[in-house]
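Exercise (ungraded).
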Amino acid sequence: MRGAAASVAAFLFMPVVALAGAAEGEKKAAPCVACHGEAGNSVNPQWPSLAQQPAQFISTALFMFREGNRKNDLMTPMAKPLSNADMNDLAAYFSAQKAAQPKHQSKPENVAAGPGLAKKFNCSQCHGPRLLGQQHIPRLAGQQHEYVLAQLKAFKAQTRADIDGNMTSAAQALSPQDIEALADYVAGLSAE
Amino acid sequence: MKTIAALAVSAAFAASALAQDKPAPPPSWQQGKPAAQAESTLHPFAPHMTGRSAKDLPVNTLKVPSGFKVEVWADGIPEARSLALGDKGTVFVSNRNAKNVYAVTTKDGKREVKTILTGLDAPNGIVFSKGTLYVAERGRITRYDGIEGKLDSPGEGKVVVDNLDPNRAAGHFWKYLAMGPDGKLYFNVGAPGNIVLPSYKEAAIWRVQPDKGVLEQVAIGVRNSVGMDFNPKTKDLWFTNHARDWLGDDSPNDTLHRVSLKGGVPNFGYPFCHQGDTLDPEYGKNRSCAEFAKPAQKLGTHIAPLGMKFYHGKMFPAEYQGNIFIAMHGSWNRSVKQGYNVMRVKVDEHGKASKPTPFLTGFLQDEKADPPMWGRPVDLLVMKDGSMLVSDDYNGIIYRVSYGK
C-alpha cells in the first residue's frame, strides 16, 4: 500500500522530466553497457546491474565516484567527466530498464535462511520487503553475486562510502558467514 | 591515560566476542527501536546528490505570508547545507555527504557556483568571520584566512582544533558551526546513535577560541544540534536540538534552547530526559526530569529543526525584528509527516520564546507518502539587504525570501 502510494505520487510528479531524461540517458549510456550489460543487465558476476535500480541510487553512486567518496579503478575515470545533468539522465534511463531474471542459483540452505537473515540484519528495513530498493537505496534482488559480496565486505571493513554511515553501521553486525549467505541469497532473487 | 585506552580496547573486544551470541546490533539510526515498532517501514531520507533543477520542481507552490515573496536564488549546488556570508557578498555553502565547500558569487545578476574546497570529511559546519572562513568537518575545525580574495586557490586550511571524533562513531558525526559574540567558535558533538549513553565529548555543545584550540564545554545532554545563533541583544546562545526517535508519532518534541554565556554548563537531559519533562523509557528509570535544564520551547515531534537565525535585517516588517526563524528538515520518524518548512518564533523582552508558526511552506506534498516532500530546508542566512536565503539539501537549491519591492 505504501509502495503503491509512493509510486503514484512519483508518477504524477515528474513523468515528463523523467521521460526526457531517459531518452538523453540512453544516448549517454553507450560506454556503460560494455561492462554493465545490454540495457544495464550485467552478465559478469563482478559488475553490478543498473537496470531497474532506483534513479536516485544511480545518480548518487555516480556522484560518489566522481567526487572520490567511492573509489574503483574502472568506475572512477568513467564518472570523472560526467556532469550532474549527465548523471541524472543516466539514472533516468537505467532506472526505467527492466531487470533480467538472475542467472545465479542460490544454495537451498541460503534460500531457506535468507528472508530471516534479511530481516534480522535490517536489510529489508531500507531495501524493502522484496529487496527491490527505493529512493537512494539500491535493488539487491537479482544483483550480481560477486559484486554484492565485495560491497558487503567493504562496508564491514568501513572502506565503502555510503550515505550518513547507515550501511557501514548496519554491516558491522554481519559475520563472514552472514555475508556469504546474504550475497548468495539476494543474487538469486527475482526482481519481477 | 594509556591504561584507560587499553581498558576501552579490551572492553570493545570482549563486547564483540559476546555479540556473537546476541541479536545483531541495529544500525545507528534504528537503535532504540522498540519491538512494538519492529514492522515499521519508517526510514531517513537522503538527498539527491546530483541535485535537481528548479525548473523540474513545483517551486511555484511555495507559500510565504502576504507581502513576502519566495524565489529560486540558485540551483546546482549539490546537497546545499549550511550557509555563510562573506564580507564581499560571497555566499559559502557546505554539504555533509560530499567533500566540498562551494562559493556562490553574483555577477551581472547571475549566480556563479564554484567548488572552492575539496577532499574534506563531512564539512557540514561553516562560518565566516573577519575575513576568515572556518570549516567544521567530522573530526576537526580548520580556518581559511582571507578566503574571499583567493576563491580560486584558497590553499590548505590551518587546524584550529582536531581529535573531535576519535572513535569515528556512527550516528550524528556532522557539525554545525557558529561564531559567538566572544570571538569563540561554537559547535555540537552529536550523540553516536539514537539513544545511547554518550562519552564525555559527545551529546554536547562546545566552544573553542580560534587561536588557542582549547575546548570549553557550553552545554551537555544535547542529543544533536544542527543550528545555533546568538541573540544580538542579550548575547545568549540559542540552538535547536533533535530529540530521540522511535517513541511514537507524538513523542518527544524536538526543542529550542537558550544558554546564558555568563556561567554554568546546563545539562538538558539526554539520554535520561527528553523535552524537559519526559523520562526516557530505558535511561530515565530511577531518574527525574527535575534535575535537568528545560528547553526554551518545544518545536514539534520529530520535526528536525536545523538552521536557526535571529532576524535583524532591514527588509521584513517591524514585527519580525528579533524573531527566530527555524528551518525544519523533517520529520521522517513519524507515520504522518510534518514540518519541511521554515517556522517563526517570537522572543519577548524577557527572552521567552513563543510557539512556532509556519512561515515558508509548500515542500510537504503528501504527509503519508514516501517520500512525503519534494524539498527540505536546512539553513538560513540573512543577507545584507535583509532578505533571507534558505538552503535545500534534497535538491541542491537555495531560495530567497524577500518583502515588498
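Further reading is listed at the end of the chapter. For now, observe: Chain A is about 60% helix and 0% strand. The interface with chain B takes residues 2-3, 5-6, 9, 13-14, 17, 56, 59-60, 62-64, 67-69, 84-85, 87-88, 91, 120-122, 125-126, 134-136, 158, 163-170, 172-175 of chain A (CB under 8 Å).
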